[in-house]
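ok trying again, last paste got cut off:
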Amino acid sequence: MTDETTATQHTATRTVAAYAAQRPNAPLAKTTVTTRAVGEHDIVIDIRYSGICHSDIHQVGEDWGDGIFPMVPGHEIAGLVSEVGPGVTRWKVGDRVGVGCFVDSCRECDHCRAGLQQYCTGEGGMVFTYNGVGKDGRPTYGGYAAELVVDEAYALRIPDGLPLDAAAPLLCAGITVYSPLSHWGAGPGKKVAIVGLGGLGHMGVQLAHAMGAEVTVLSQSLRKRADGLRLGADHYRATSDTAVFEELAGSFDLIVNTVSADLDLTAYIGLLRVDGTMVQVGVPEKPLTLYPFPLAIGRRSLAGSAIGGLPETQEMLDFCAEHGITAEIELIRAEQINEAYRRVLDGDVRFRFVIDASTI
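nice, full thing came through this time. structure:
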């Protein structure tokens, strides 16, 4: 291969098979999209698996603001490196890698320098894996596709001990709950409540248990009780029974709310011990309301958390490999994506849909 041929390979755009929504709320259908060229420090990921996150549905529906269409969702991506740019030093062809919710950031602000790229405040901010605009001005496309071109610095190593299909959801669902559990010190001697046992909640139970905390699931009903206890919960309580809020008042050091629903925050804040914290990781479409008195009388906190930076996400993947933690998944073909979306909205999944990208 000549130097001229190599240069051509790294300047040509790429046509990639993908599943996309052509307009807001449209069904996803097979198509092709044009991605950027492979740059000096880019790698090409042969996508093997891509998780379906509830936020994919929100963004296709423009629930959180205007979208960029055609939209190729997917930010729980696992695959193998198939090509590297001439300046790549971190990866080689065949490496097992993953990509989460962002593919770039300013790299210069205080947050980026601290490894908190998800809170980037520099020019352009964090670049979302899909439904975003890259520094080259091109729209970004996500993991419901055959391949992804990404800067080598924004890919993560998936340890050999993690199967790629069950590891894919860790890139969003896993880090979304790992980050607050780690930041607020879940561990031995701490009582942690996980609200909801869905895609995020089932990861939160496993991670909090592995960290050594005493774990309680707070769910609307006892329908998933056997699953929750099997995954590591010590207790499982149904919040449809209002007596639960009296019985558990002042019980928890940390509550992680994983559901995107209209909850009575005042009631949940009352479950915290003095100096306890409730962290929102689920993002409902409508504002939530809170009577602040329970915060004041217990010096309690209501906080939020968004995914994790690159170092913490790698830490999470390594922690999961060490403790044998993966998502519990239902593997689907690409033509089942729209059906999967309907089932997610109906709560009919245990616990994460993952697309077999070989069917795209």
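cool. The two ends are 30 Å apart (CA to CA). The chain has two domains: 3-169+327-359, 173-304.
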